[in-house]
Amino acid sequence: MAGMPLNDMPWWRWRTNVRSALHMLSDPAFHQNCWVPGVPGYGDITDAVYRLVEDTWLDNWSAEKYVGTVFRDSQEAALVDVAVLRVLRIMHQVGADAPVTAYLQHHGWSEAVRAAREAHVRLAAGDGDDPDTPPRSLDELAAAMHIV
User: pTM for the whole thing?
Assistant: First the structure.
């Protein structure tokens, strides 16, 4: 996200939140190293899901609605839709306030992680970023979103 031109996408702040959420949801090492021990500054799975859907309402309609504004093309939108649906299905099954381990132990979690990874990689590539950098803290995310 650091290399993303700030005027490239009209709603780049929404895209930044979606990318941050997908990045965290897609990284099993991050889950084990940050979410499981509750490292301060990174929120939890519920926080990530909120960032994924808060402004975009992707829990109510397709990402296709935002092609050209938040997402570059239909392929990005389709990958985001799959990730959102898989993560939300698990959240509804285990509960929004469930501990991180309940998500990680869910039988569908690996599929949700894979879907989030595919979407994250596609969006990162579209923005010219390395998808394998570690997720940024929520403070770093907030600072990046206030530079304009």
Answer: 0.91
